[in-house]
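Render this sequence as a predicted structure.
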Amino acid sequence: MITSDEIKRRLWDGANELRGSMDASRYKDYMLGLMFYKFLSDKTIDTFRMTSGMKQQTEKEVIEAYHENYQQYGDQLVKMISDVLGYYVLPEHLYQTWISAIRTGEFEVQKVTDSLNNFERTIAITGDSDDFKGLFSSSTLDLTDTALGSNLNERNKNIKELVLLFADLNMVALQKGDVLGNAYEYLIGQFAMESGKKAGEFYTPPQVSEVMAQIVAKTKSIKSIYDPTVGSGSLLLTVSKYLSEDEKKRLAYYGQEKNTATYNLTRMNLLLHGVRPEKMTISNGDTLAEDWPEDPQRPNDGVQFDAVVMNPPYSVKNWNKSNLKISDPRFEVAGVLPPDSKGDYAFLLHGLFHLGQQGTMAIVLPHGVLFRGGSEGEIRKRLLAKNYIDTIIGLPDKLFTNTGIPVTVLILKKDRPLGAPVLMIDASKTFVKEGKQNVLQEKDIAKIVDAYATSSEEVGYSHLATRDEIIENDYNLNIPRYIETIDGEVSHDVDAHLYGGIPSKNITELKVLQESVPTIIKQALKEVRSGYVELTEPIEALTKKVLNDDHVSQKSKAVEQQLKVYLDKYWELLKTIDDVNGVTELRDAMLLEIKELLLAFKHINEYDGYQIIAEIWKEKLTEDAEIIALTDFYTAGRTRVPLMVTKGTGKKKREEQDGWIGSIVSNDLIKKQLFSEDVVTIEEKEAGLSEVEAELMDLVEAAKVEDSDEESALSEVLNDKEDAFTIGLIRSLLKEATKGNTDYTLLKKVEDLLNGKTNLSREVKKLNQELKEATESRIETLTNEEIDNLMYEKWFGSLVSKVMRLVENPLTEELAVLEQLQNRYSDTLTTLEEEGNQLEQELEEMMQQLVVNES
């Protein structure tokens, strides 16, 4: 069974190889479209197998039976399948039929075109679910497009390779663990990164989706969700991820999308994630031009949803092409229409109109909506007066591929208590850079969601803005008006610069040191004058005392003990996981518990601990847990899989097996733990080889020095282009050289070094190959105890030390500030004057030594 990470890597590598020069935003329609058709074919075959009672037969046997039954029962058979699925794919148009044609050399692009067209016709004729209509229209998948190949033969070849990319994937099996849906989402994200600005049409960055979804999912009893600018549908799906299984089953998905290709992408995405056709209502239309969805019985109320999420296009110009009036029920609450030059509030008001009384709405918009004046200022004032704005979250710039501007997430509710403050969160400074983009880490998202859930205030991060504050700011909601950025720089003290000493107030501000090791800090300082102190010992010695203090040691031991209990618990749960669907649930529980564990200890950043666990899941646990769930821990531990490597370039590029790797157990760890002596031997020989190479390089450099012995003896045997000696020339000169002289000695030395290098290289290569083969064989004979040791090291080997550093970090950070203060005020006015006087004296002495010759 293929895991999420494997399928993601394979499909994206395939996409990059096959698309050539075609624009990523265009190629995605072909790749994702054919991937979805494979899903429809697999579902048709699986439904036929189940309804006809075929259990253990191979796919080939099931397809043959499907052909035979269709010839015998025709419409009766397809109606049976259609009643179950809401669609069907005829035997002659199955994806597997294309694959068969490829293997027999009878494939033509027309086979794909005919199949897609037939599917479109059957949906149109039977009147089955609208969710499948137009998915493969020629406007979306034009297989005559010259970008796929300048002639029919090239297009035939390229489409054939794309078809084969999905040939061995069982889409039904992959969907059960949501592996298929995750892979599809991953491909959408990768295409978005490649598409740059065009990605804004269909993609919301995962970290922004996560912030919005986790907040919205806290709403009680979500039965319906709506995204008026649905894009790829990722926001809808991310919200559903945080709902209970019962909530997911009854959840009704609604969305509207203007771009037809993206509208198709949405429907495919939802269906691949297992959303039933009857639970999704997606419209292809302009959200602002005409209200949708509309309740004919109550046109002025709008269809109400428990959750509304949106990432609309920013500041759309000329949005009111339909000449809408303030009488439009969507805009009545605002009292004025948003300006025609910026459609931000038009989208917000549309979403708000469809928000249920107990629901939650999350919308991401440019920061301008918080402070721009004119009609936008009037709308903002009216929304605040109605008490609809609940939370404002400032995010970093460069989160999106299609714009570099910073964005804000607005949370709106209609049932807020009277007089409730507006929560302001400034998360604009917490991110990491990945290439040109800024990215919120898992811990940043967790902190935002926690601040929202608890309505907590934190200096420099979050603030509850009262109505009076907002009125005082003239309804301007710009976050810096309410949250002052904390400047990490300690302010300068003029007296300290003039007369020396560290201001005592700066010492008082070192809260962690003062609360953790007050006695040590007090003993390390002496007063130099009133209000100023200085260190009595080097910072290195003080740091050692602080970190070895009993209070710090006891705290570290307590954290370590709690961490051991935590790891023992999740070690057993990870080893015994037997359901792929439970992997995400286990991850979430592990993340929540590490945060709660660290919260019990003062001066430890629980979000840094959260990030440590999140990264272990991302790098190791997710894939391993999926594999374990599909087999079992010890079976997976003794399983090896082919190590496939890419060789050659261009037309000769190919995949070849290069040995074996453990399914979950790391080959490197097997070498390190079970073949340690062999590893040491190889390392020693490699070190010797490096020494020989270094000695040879020294002789190469020496041979380039004019008039040196090395140049005289070795210049003729030196290949300047490669900076290396030629062994054949050396042997020829040695035959002519006189034994014992300098030339002979140097030539012989190089010959011996080159021979030694060759022999060592052969030995190292041979030993590495033997170790590789021994390691690969050892995988299948690992004992349970060995698997336990290897996997614990793989998952948690560095975890304890990383968490222990979280205990020390606040202390060492403040010690670094103390060192900075000591250095800052060590040069006083007096010392500077003394240095100046010294320099003047030295200059005068130099002047006196100058001798002036008179002619």
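Summary. The longest strand covers residues 355-366. The chain has a mean pLDDT of 88.
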